[in-house]
Amino acid sequence: MSAHPSDENWIGRRIASLRRERGWTLAVVGQRVGLSTTQLSRIESGGRQSSVGTLIELARVFEVTLSELVAEEPTYSFHLVRAGECAPHESANGAMTPLSGNYPGIDAVLLTIPPSSDAPIAHHSGEEWLYILHGSVEVTIGNEQVLLESGDALHFPSLNAHSVRGLGNTSTRALLVSAASSPREGAGHLPPP
Questions:
Q1: Residues of CATH 1.10.260.40 domain(s) within the chain?
Q2: pTM check: above 0.85
Q3: Going edge to edge, which strands form the sheet with 127-134?
Q4: With bands split at pLDDT 50, 70 and 90, how would you rate the model's confidence at 152?
């Protein structure tokens, strides 16, 4: 693929490419991640930015890591991200910078969440751990709201509907680690189209 991660709609084109490589329709993938065919089509075309939760679920559906989904990088025996060399990508939650490599199991990202940002609702297999580096957010899990400030951490099963909204007047920086679902959760494969 000749596209480069810094291109405006790299992620949307990557999602479309992975879907077509597998011979899956928009409807099949949309059903698996909880999006309508229109929503998924808009993500693929660049007309809509995906939330981090949706990107995590799409990566799992395609059986790739979040880093593989959002960045073109080869797999080595280790993954190193040097300060100043990170490549942020815009998402519906704000700027997302992948920090983990192309290894299955966990995905780690640095989030920069704008103040008073919309809070897209996500739910996907696995679990999430969120650590606030600077600023504050309101996390909604189901019907509960949790206020997190600098130094606070929150760990929860991500099958529960959840959202993260920036608070205050400045952007919040947070580490988000998402772990794949365990085999007992029944993370299955997509049905054939």
A1: 10-72
A2: no
A3: 89-91, 94-98, 106-113, 172-179, 127-134, 153-157
A4: very high
Residues of the chain with CATH 2.60.120.10: 89-184
Most confident of the following: 17-26, 60-69, 178-187 = 17-26
Q: Which CATH class is domain 89-184?
A: mainly beta
Axis crossing angle, helix 37-45 with helix 10-22, rounded to the nearest 10: 120
Check pLDDT > 90 for residue 136: yes
User: How is domain 10-72 classified at the architecture level of CATH?
Assistant: Orthogonal Bundle (1.10)
**CB-based burial label for 145 (10 Å; 0-12, 13-18, 19+):** exposed
